[in-house]
Design brief:
4 helices; 20 strands; 5-stranded mixed sheet; 40% strand
């Protein structure tokens, strides 16, 4: 009797497996496109140059969800290269590219002509600039504007996030790990090449505050109803981790005695969440102590540690972690341990 039961169970299992596979067919195999190849391949348009720094300047226009600005990309040559690729995803528009070449005898500054291939912009280098490995960094300045893709379900489905906080104030950020940083600014959009440092200069209405990665470098009031907030990191950072936060922020901080010295711990939260944040983020030093014990010293001490109120669930943006768990323990209040 026991043997019959085992046999019956065997056939029931395979019957259910077969019928399930018929009722829910596998999804069609994904077909990779030419655009996927351009973004994912590390070939002749990318392997000859190494990004050293991004100096990104972006103005956020709240009224129509557009942005504009420029990115100064400092790089060094690793070997001879004939064509350079800069990535910027549609519907964003690359306006112009200016190239600065530091030669042996004189510096050259010139505008380059480029061709567009989907989300990639390609331009040939003049013969005289196609030298091999050099000690002096060169720069390409990419000017851009447009209305970037809006994130449908951040952080999983990425893009720009334009929301309002509870008091009706604008609340803006981005999440773009899978989609790529080129969804909102021009860059070498390949995760294998991290800039050694980066600066983020955010222009927004002067009634709001803009927060970025790393340490605050200053605020400039522009006299036209906007202000520019400058932030910078001195450690290597992946391009998708360079993220702006704009809103009615307020700030509090503390110093944590880390294994390799003091760590500045800063909390940038919406004014409406200040009291909740002071209570909830009291656990942050305890978390830091546990992580340093088990995984080693916090690696970005030069750039500080920040938690920033974000208009989505959250993400590991280096030195400016996006927090959106609604000030609850667990995963939105659920214990998933």
């Amino acid at each position: 009797m026991k043997q019959v039961s085992k046999t019956a169970a065997f056939f029931i299992f395979y019957f259910l497996l077969f019928t399930s596979s018929q009722a829910q067919p596998l999804k069609p195999m994904q077909k990779f496109t030419h655009a996927d190849t351009l973004r994912g391949t590390y070939g002749a348009t990318r392997d000859w140059w190494d990004v050293l720094k991004y100096d990104l300047h972006v103005k956020f226009n709240i009224q129509d969800s557009t942005i504009s600005g420029y990115n100064v990309i400092q790089f060094k040559t690793l070997k001879k290269g004939a064509v350079m690729q800069i990535d910027l995803q549609e519907p964003m528009i690359l306006d112009s590219l200016n190239y600065t070449f530091y030669g042996n005898y004189k510096d050259e500054h010139f505008k380059v002509n480029f061709s567009k291939d989907g989300n990639a912009y390609l331009f040939p280098l003049p013969q005289r600039t196609q030298g091999g490995k050099g000690d002096l960094p060169n720069t390409i300045t990419a000017y851009f504007h447009g209305k970037p893709r809006i994130a449908r379900r951040p952080p999983w489905d990425g893009g720009l996030i334009w929301k309002k906080s509870a008091d009706g104030s604008p609340w803006v950020s981005a999440a773009c790990q899978g989609l790529g940083a080129s969804v909102w600014y021009p860059c070498k959009d390949h995760q294998s090449d991290e800039p050694d440092s980066a600066a983020l200069n955010i222009t927004c209405p002067d009634s709001l505050t803009a927060v970025g990665n790393g340490r605050f470098r200053g605020k400039t009031v522009n006299g036209d109803g906007t202000a520019t907030y400058s932030w910078a990191v001195t450690e290597p950072i992946n391009n998708y981790n360079i993220i702006p936060y704009i809103g009615k922020y307020t700030h509090f901080s503390e110093v944590f005695k880390g294994e390799k010295g003091d760590i500045d711990m800063d909390y940038w939260v919406l004014e409406e969440n200040l009291q909740k944040a002071k209570k909830h983020f009291a656990d942050a030093p305890r978390m830091m102590k546990a992580f340093e014990h088990w995984f080693g010293p916090y690696p970005f001490r030069k750039d500080s540690y920040k938690l920033v109120d974000a208009p989505h669930l959250g993400m590991e943006h280096q030195s400016a972690t996006a927090y959106g768990n609604k000030y609850q323990n667990g995963y939105l209040g659920r214990d998933m341990s």
